[in-house]
Design goal:
Elements: E1 2-3, E2 24-33, H1 36-42, E3 53-54, E4 59-66, E5 78-81, E6 84-86, H2 92-95, E7 106-107, E8 119-123, E9 128-129, H3 136-139, H4 145-155, E10 161-165, H5 169-180, E11 184-189, H6 194-202, E12 207-210, E13 219-224, H7 231-238, E14 239-247, E15 268-271, H8 277-286, E16 296-300, H9 304-312, E17 319-323
Parallel strand pairs: 10-11, 10-13, 11-12, 13-14, 14-15, 16-17
Antiparallel strand pairs: 1-3, 2-4, 2-8, 2-17, 4-5, 5-9, 6-7
C-alpha cells in the first residue's frame, strides 16, 4: 500500500522489487500492526516522510534472502522490524548510547519503506528477535506500542500509582507490565468511553474514568499516550509533588498555557523519543514473562485505510493489525 502525500488515502500499486543492500535482509511480511504514527504521517502532522512511501513499522516477517555481510539471521527465521531502522553510529548521541536521538536516524515506514506490503527489506542490525510463544498477529503490536510504552514506563522510575492517559494499543500492553511489577494503575479514556474503561479494569486498572476527571488519589507518575496537548496540565494536576509526567507520542496538539504551580514541587515533564535497540531486546525478553497478551483487531492488507479510519475515530480497544499472509 503506497502513501503518496499528506491527506492522501493509501493505494495499491505495483512496487519494484527492493534492492538488497549489504547488511540487509529481505522478508516475507506476515503481519504489520497499525500505529498512530502511521496516522500522523497520513494526516500530514509529521512533515518529513519520503514519498512515495510504504507505511508500517511493526513488522513481523520471515527472512527469505540475506545480503552481503549480513550474518545475524538465517533464511526462514522470524524477525521483527521496529520504528528505528538506521543510525549513523558516530554522532555524540550514538556514542553515548542514545541512538534514539541520532540526528541522522532513519525510521521504518517514514524515511524507509515499511511493512504495509507483502515484502520488505531491513538492516539486520536493527531487527529484533521475537519470542517464539507469540503468533504473528499477537506479537506485532509489541514492536512499537509495546516498545514505546516500555521506554515510557522505565522513565517513571519506581512510581507506585501510575496514570495512563489514552487507553489504546500502548496502554493496554503497559498496564499488564505495570501490574506485574505491583504498580497500581489508573486509566483515563475519552469522556463517555465506558467500554474502554471496562477494558482497562479487565487488565488490572483499579480505577478508570474520563481524562477530564481527577483520580481518587494523587498519582506518582502519569504517561500520556493520547496526542492531546490539553492532557498535560491535567496530568500535572493529578501527580503528587516529585511526580513525573511522560509524553509518549511523536506528535501532540498544541499545549495550553498553565500555571507554574502545576509544575512546582519538583514535578517533572518529559517526552519519549523513538527507541533504542536495547529497549527492544529488553522488552522482547520481558513480555513473555509477564506474560503480555495483546488485544488485536485483524484487517487485511487492502483494508489498511479502514484500519486507519477506525484508529482516527477512537474505535479500537487494543491494536489494529494487518494480516499480510
Amino acid at each position: 500500500m503506497i502513501f503518496s502525500g499528506a491527506g492522501s488515502p493509501l493505494r495499491e500499486a505495483e512496487l519494484p522489487r527492493l534492492e538488497l543492500a549489504p547488511g540487509q535482509v529481505r522478508l516475507n511480511v506476515q503481519a504489520c500492526a497499525v500505529c498512530r504514527t502511521d496516522l500522523h504521517i497520513v494526516d500530514g502532522e509529521l512533515s518529513d516522510p519520503k514519498v512515495p512511501l510504504v507505511l508500517g513499522h511493526q513488522i513481523v516477517g520471515l527472512v527469505t534472502e540475506i545480503g552481503e555481510a549480513a550474518s545475524r539471521f538465517s533464511v526462514g527465521e522470524r524477525v521483527g522490524v521496529p520504528w528505528l531502522g538506521w543510525t549513523d553510529g558516530t554522532c555524540r548521541f550514538c556514542r553515548a548510547g542514545r541512538e534514539n536521538l541520532c540526528d541522522r536516524a532513519k525510521f521504518t515506514g517514514y524515511q524507509l519503506d515499511g511493512g504495509f506490503a507483502e515484502e520488505a527489506v531491513a538492516d539486520e542490525r536493527y531487527c529484533l528477535q521475537i519470542p517464539e510463544s507469540y503468533a504473528d498477529l499477537e506479537v506485532a503490536p509489541l514492536l512499537c506500542a509495546g516498545l514505546i510504552g516500555y521506554r515510557s514506563l522505565v522513565m517513571t522510575g519506581d512510581a507506585e500509582r501510575l496514570g495512563l492517559y489514552g487507553f489504546g494499543a500502548s496502554a493496554h500492553i503497559i498496564a499488564q507490565v505495570a501490574r506485574s511489577q505491583a504498580r497500581r494503575v489508573f486509566a483515563f479514556t475519552r469522556a463517555g468511553d465506558e467500554e474502554g474503561q471496562l477494558f482497562a479494569r479487565s487488565l488490572g486498572a483499579e480505577w478508570a474514568g474520563s481524562s477530564t476527571e481527577k483520580p481518587p488519589e494523587q498519582l506518582d507518575a502519569a504517561i500520556i499516550f493520547a496526542p492531546v496537548g490539553e492532557l498535560i496540565p491535567a496530568a500535572l494536576a493529578a501527580v503528587a509533588k516529585g511526580g513525573v509526567v511522560v509524553c509518549a507520542g511523536i506528535h501532540m496538539s498544541e499545549i495550553p498555557s498553565f500555571s507554574y504551580d502545576l509544575l512546582w514541587g519538583e514535578r517533572e515533564l518529559r517526552s519519549v523519543a523513538n527507541l533504542t535497540r536495547r529497549d527492544g531486546e529488553e522488552f522482547m525478553q520481558l513480555a513473555p514473562k509477564v506474560p503480555v497478551r495483546t488485544e488485536i483487531r485483524e484487517f487485511r492488507l487492502e483494508e489498511a485505510n479502514e484500519a486507519l479510519q477506525h484508529l482516527r475515530a477512537g474505535e479500537l480497544h487494543g491494536a489494529a493489525v494487518l494480516k499480510i499472509r
